[in-house]
């Protein structure tokens, strides 16, 4: 049965670049924090989705961290990522 549907999409080649990007992040050559406007622990993900959907507080990109990593001061990369304030 023909339904006259058109499906379009783009491809994200993240797998091609992920090792390079992670390496640059670990070396401090790329600062990923500039893309996040908010951070939340995983336990508050429902609130994060709601806020994102409603564009609350000008939310553009959320950094979701496991509760155990949220506010963890032992991991330098996590510290840089979680230095973002709500």
Structure, described:
With 86 residues, the protein is an alpha+beta fold. It has a domain at 32-86. It contains 3 helices and 2 strands. The chain has a two-stranded parallel ribbon. The radius of gyration is 17 Å and the shape is flat. 3% of the residues are buried.
Strand order of the largest sheet: 1-2
The shape is: flat
Number of strands: 2
Helix- and strand-based class?
Answer: alpha+beta
Question: Low-confidence parts lasting 5 or more residues at pLDDT below 50?
Answer: none
Largest sheet: 2 strands, parallel
Order of helices and strands: HEHEH
Question: TL;DR of this structure?
Answer:
The chain is 35% helix and 9% strand.
Notable characteristics:
single chain; 3 helices; 2 strands
Write the layout of secondary structure elements.
Blueprint: H1 14-26, E1 38-41, H2 45-54, E2 62-65, H3 76-82
Parallel strand pairs: 1-2
């Amino acid at each position: 049965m023909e339904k006259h549907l058109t499906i379009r999409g783009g491809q994200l080649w993240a797998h091609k670049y992920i090792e390079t990007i992670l390496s640059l992040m670990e070396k401090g050559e790329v600062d990923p924090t500039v893309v996040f406007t908010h951070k939340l622990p995983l336990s508050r993900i429902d609130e994060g989705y709601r806020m994102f959907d409603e564009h609350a507080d000008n939310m553009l990109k959320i950094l979701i961290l496991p509760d155990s990593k949220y506010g963890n001061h032992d991991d330098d990369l996590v510290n840089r990522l979680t230095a973002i304030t709500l």
